[in-house]
Give the backbone structure.
Amino acid sequence: MLRVVDEAARTDAGRQRHANEDSYYACAPVYAVADGMGGAQAGEVASRIAAEAFDERTGEGTPEQQLARVASEANRRIFELAQEDSSRSGMGTTLTGLLVDGDEVAIVHVGDSRAYLFRDGELRQLTRDHSLVEELRRQGRLTPEEAEEHPQRSIITRALGPERDVQLDVHTHRARSGDLYLICSDGLTSMVRESRLREILAESESLRNAVDALVAEANEMGGRDNITVVLFRVGGDGADHDGPAVDETVVGLRDPEPDTGEQDIVPAVSPAPEPREPAARGAAPRRRSRRTFRRMLITLLLLALLAGAVVGAVAGIRSVYFVGQDERGLVALYRGVPYELPLGIDLYEPEYVSSVPARTLSPTQRRRQLDHQLRSREDAADIVRELERGRQ
């Protein structure tokens, strides 16, 4: 019979957001991360509702049924609140929750927050992102490398709140003593590659060190979004632990502050608690300094190589267009190609922003609008005009 023998959790606003719309729940045997969307008065509320819903979990039914019931109830509350208050219209949240039960771990998942298993030095993703980019990757229209750098990788296709009913992914995973589970918002995975996540988990001397190191790494890589990390380890009854190192439940919301941006959605989502300064990493400072220097040197060399190519390609880039959606979710005409260079340098710029919300398009229209196919200005403009006429 397995039980939780150690745990640690932390949330951080990141480097580019003033508000934190993430919430988490950490109270053995249940752990969850919710990444809210909708602004300081909405995303924070949505994620908090999802996290706090676990306080009302009952032991009735199977672990999967318990998790599905909690998620469905959270969806109902968020949806009804958004209907009652126009200022919170469209708010939503991701939710990834795990429940340890005997030798199994049940999982409920919606959105692009993730759950991972770290076992025998290997890291394996247990959830599948409900995102536009992930769908394109599964269809073979994007390579894994292209998916990681795609400018619209934050667009999600499923979340709690935007719709009255939500489709949940619910499944059970067989666990074994020593397994380490990571649950996180996309503020971590959009900044830090899985290979680096694995290194940090392997190097850290404790779960608390690992949590601090993961948050610090995401901030070092740009910290463009809120970052939430929950870690817990399971062991047998005879494990040499006295019990969980942390016994926290939901991290509360901080006083609302204006946000500088929101996560794009189709139905959607994004991140809530008091940010803290990144704590020290678990790895030795000298080794860390060498690794940071190497990374900076490699980056500078790559930038130097790219600079020549970019200069020569500017004329070509500025002659092509594509249709996408802006940060507010409106259909837009862009000039350039849908990619970003290191340091957040965009290879595209908005040429025209329509009044058509992307979420109002049919699946067929959305596929056509979000395919990022490079076109002439006339062809791309015709698509936007057609969509605008359809709303009249």
Summary: Confidence is low (pLDDT under 50) at residues 238-290, 309-314. The radius of gyration is 21 Å. The chain is about 35% helix and 25% strand.
